[in-house]
């Protein structure tokens, strides 16, 4: 593998212990991927702040970076951790992870990372990537957004790799950094589904989850999507597909920058397979993610996985206004600290507080430390939440639309419209 003079200097330790440590890992990964060279990156999103739960790294790695006084070489944002630093009243101090998680999250901030602590880095103003921009993003729901919506280039980087890439500014020139590896392999059609479903946020959670099941780690191209689809719907689709499958990229014709046509998405080659999504399939997925029947008493409602956008929070706010904030259950709404700052600035958070609705930042609610762990019955808007919560906090989960979740909070039990044939 060919290295530039500067890359060799980093590997030899001439640019500091931290860069040598990072380069050793990146070079080993590059060799395992048969990369002929490294690729310089301009930005990173690190994911090593989770010390417990699915995707955990453990604190020892962060302590090692701290001991060598590591610093990032490119602008870098930080993923969620296991505690809410912005709203400490949300945390359970008795949890083992509390002090450790706070320490680890602060270590990455001290390395020069921007303390965004969000799983939706693509919603941050500084993370609006450009076509062809090479970055090193971790977080399963963020990677497909970077590749598929921005047209940037990142492989699906997990623990250790994204942070080492941030320190040395390099990744292997392999995977989704290489044009030919970004070719769509499987065509997924939703052209014959009723158009009114395509305005529903729930539709994209369920569709994404089904697509992930179909394609696993292969790259799909979706036809039949409205080119005016919102970024929130794209976020939901990518997060769900990366949860049930292992995708790092999807194409949507007329939406993904590299895919103005189906032929472009396929790089003018034949597709390996074709699959037409049916309503029966979507209903089946809905049932797979539904453990509580309609009318079942609930104990909580949780919004936001990935973190909600400002527009989504406004939508939920108005839905609660429509029912006069008459809720019977604890409600949790997860968002980035920047989004929380925005709703504090416009006064919305006061109404949430008055209704005893808990705003959560810096973390996900399906990790232990906020909700109790004893078979809790929860309603959520998110396929990702519904997938992980049973594993992480032993919750019994039902997924529904924003309106389903609000109506369930009012009724104190599952209210679920699902996918009706009627508009």
Radius of gyration: 21 Å
Q: How many beta strands in the DSSP annotation?
A: 14
Q: The CATH topology of the largest domain, please? A: Aconitase, domain 3
| Major beta sheet summary | 5 strands, parallel
Tally the helices: what do you get? 15
Q: By CATH's scheme, which homologous superfamily of the largest domain applies?
A: Aconitase, domain 3
- CATH architectural designation of the largest domain: 2-Layer Sandwich
Relative strand content: 5-15%
Q: How many structural units, i.e. domains? A: 3
Structural class by sheet pairing and helices: alpha/beta
Distance between the termini: 58 Å
For the record, what CATH class of the largest domain applies?
A: Alpha Beta
With strands numbered from the N-terminus, the spatial order across the biggest sheet is: 12-11-10-13-14
Task: Tell me what you see in this structure.
Pfam families: AcnX (PF04412). InterPro entries: PMDh-L-like_dom. Keywords: Iron, Lyase. Residues 1-407 form the Phosphomevalonate dehydratase large subunit-like domain. This protein is of the alpha/beta class and 423 residues long. The protein has three domains: 5-176, Aconitase, domain 3 (2-Layer Sandwich), CATH 3.30.499; 183-287; 290-411, Aconitase, domain 3. 37% of the residues lie in helices and 13% in strands. It contains 15 helices and 14 strands. It has a five-stranded parallel sheet, sandwiched between helices. The protein is globular.
């Amino acid at each position: 593998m060919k290295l530039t003079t500067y890359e060799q200097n980093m590997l030899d330790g001439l640019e500091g212990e931290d860069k040598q440590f990072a380069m050793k890992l990146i070079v080993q990964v590059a060799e395992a991927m048969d990369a002929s060279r490294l690729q310089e990156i301009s930005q990173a999103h690190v994911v090593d702040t989770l010390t417990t739960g699915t995707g955990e790294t453990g604190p020892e790695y962060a302590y090692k970076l701290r001991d060598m006084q590591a610093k990032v070489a490119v602008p870098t944002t930080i993923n969620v951790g296991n505690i809410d630093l912005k709203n400490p009243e949300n945390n359970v101090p008795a949890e083992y992870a509390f002090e450790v998680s706070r320490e680890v999250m602060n270590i990455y901030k001290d390395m020069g990372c921007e303390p965004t602590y969000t799983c939706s880095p693509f919603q941050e103003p500084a993370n609006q990537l450009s076509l062809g921009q090479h970055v090193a993003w971790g977080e399963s729901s963020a990677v497909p957004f970077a590749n598929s919506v921005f047209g940037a280039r990142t492989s699906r980087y997990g623990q250790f790799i994204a942070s080492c890439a941030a320190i040395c500014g390099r990744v292997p020139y392999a995977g989704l950094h290489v044009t030919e590896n970004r070719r769509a392999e499987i065509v997924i059609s939703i052209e014959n589904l009723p158009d009114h479903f395509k305005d529903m946020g729930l539709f994209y959670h369920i569709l994404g989850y089904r697509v992930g099941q179909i394609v696993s780690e292969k790259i799909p191209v979706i036809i039949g999507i409205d080119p005016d689809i919102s970024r929130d719907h794209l976020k939901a689709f990518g997060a769900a597909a990366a949860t049930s499958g292992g995708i790092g990229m999807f194409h949507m014709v007329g939406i993904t920058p590299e895919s103005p046509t189906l032929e472009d998405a396929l790089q003018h080659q034949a597709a390996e397979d074709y699959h037409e999504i049916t309503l029966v399939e979507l209903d089946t997925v809905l049932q797979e993610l539904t453990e509580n029947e309609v009318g079942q008493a609930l104990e909580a409602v949780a919004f936001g996985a990935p973190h909600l956008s400002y527009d989504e929070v406004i939508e939920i706010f108005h839905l609660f206004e429509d029912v006069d904030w008459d809720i019977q259950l604890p409600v949790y709404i997860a968002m980035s600290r920047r989004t929380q700052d925005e709703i504090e600035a416009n006064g919305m958070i006061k109404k949430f507080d008055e209704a005893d609705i808990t705003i959560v930042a810096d973390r996900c609610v399906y990790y232990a430390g906020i909700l109790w762990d004893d078979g809790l019955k929860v309603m959520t808007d998110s396929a990702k939440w519904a997938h992980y919560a049973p594993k992480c906090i032993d919750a019994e989960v039902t997924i529904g639309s924003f309106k389903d979740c609000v109506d369930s909070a009012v009724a104190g039990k599952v209210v679920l419209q699902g996918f009706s044939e009627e508009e």
